[in-house]
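Subgroup meeting minutes
Present: P.N., E.W., G.H.
Scribe: E.W.

1. P.N. recapped why we're keeping a running log of single-chain structure predictions: easier to compare across weeks, and new members can see raw inputs and outputs side by side.
2. G.H. added today's entry (426 aa).
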Amino acid sequence: MKSPCSANMQWDPMITTLPGLYIASLLPLYPIGFIFSKEDIASSCTPLLLRSTNILFSVGNLYLLYLTTYKLHYNKKNGGSVVLTALTLATFPVLYFFTWLYYTDAGSTFFSLLTYLCVLHKRHRSAAVCGLVAILFRQTNVVWVMFGAGVTAGQVILKWLQLKKKEVEAGLSDELIFSKTLSLISQSLRYNPKLLVDLVFQIFKAVWCYAVVGLIFGLFVLINKGIVVGDRSNHEPCLNFPQIYYFITICAFFSFMHMVSILKVCNFITFSVRHPIVTVTFFLFAVIFVSKFMYIHVYNLSDNRHYNFYFLSKIITRHEYAKFLLIPAYYYGFVVMWNLLQKRDLFWKLSYFICTVACIVPQRMIEFRYFIFPYLLFRLNIPMASVKLLLAELAFYFSINALTVYAYAYKPFPWPNTPLPQRFMW
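Output recorded in log:
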């Protein structure tokens, strides 16, 4: 696409997202057009100014991460940890890298975080509006609007079960909540159907605004004949279930300080032994998904600028059995992630994992950028770490950012039949 500030702007058919980022870039420039002329807008709209849009969003992300962490974890003893957590997550390498380029990630993350913060404060209409704006940056953000609906519905169900927040956070098991829910539904159907109807009404009353966003998005998909607005041939949906395992890998890599320890390994072994049905089921489905549902986009195999090319070629497809040998690591990551979300109730966790699957599985292309928001959600909702651990995590992120920015800026390489130098990037 030509510059979004160009007077004769034309849409590039290769662009696949809605124009949220371009609208955000133009809004601060419109006063110039009113005072002077459209030509002044075009002349002042430089690449530096356009990229500064994402810098502003990144500052906003830092503030929203702080507010979210404060809401979820703050007490009188951990104020420093709250600030450090926000600062660390604001420098999450995949997100940080694209701050300096004209991509949708910073703005998409900003409005998705704002949606979640509104959900936490039970400002559901505001959450729905913010979610609608987030969709303008990336269509798949509709999933996180539905996540807000799922979390809200879960809170209504917990209230219906007469469970208090303290009881859930104190460690009331997921199995107990699940069995109590089924039991109460069964009793309601047998003896008092009106009670169940009242529950449905209360859920609808709480989530109707999210449903409106879902209907608007459904209408868009119907009119557009699909989610993608541009290059559909290279973005055809599929059931790429191994994306779940790639996401678990990313979580384990960037959160290894929280996910790997002798105690966690011992707990994982104990869990695997005590729950053989869960273990066998996970391995069975993993083998089926990896062998029958692995799709690798032609771009992932040919574009050696992106780190996902090396992730696939050096690890996943290095040997025909490599993808199966990694299944135990995937299972470990899944179990630890579930356990780390111990303070979130069963319905929160189910909403999170279902929405993460809905967001990433239909994608044929492996893009680490697709994992940014679900990773931040996971990381925000695990127990608060010590200042020492957070400083180590921040240093880890800083090192990765320094290396990736250095590689991008100072290690260009040529492509055949292409005059411009190519650069490494996420």
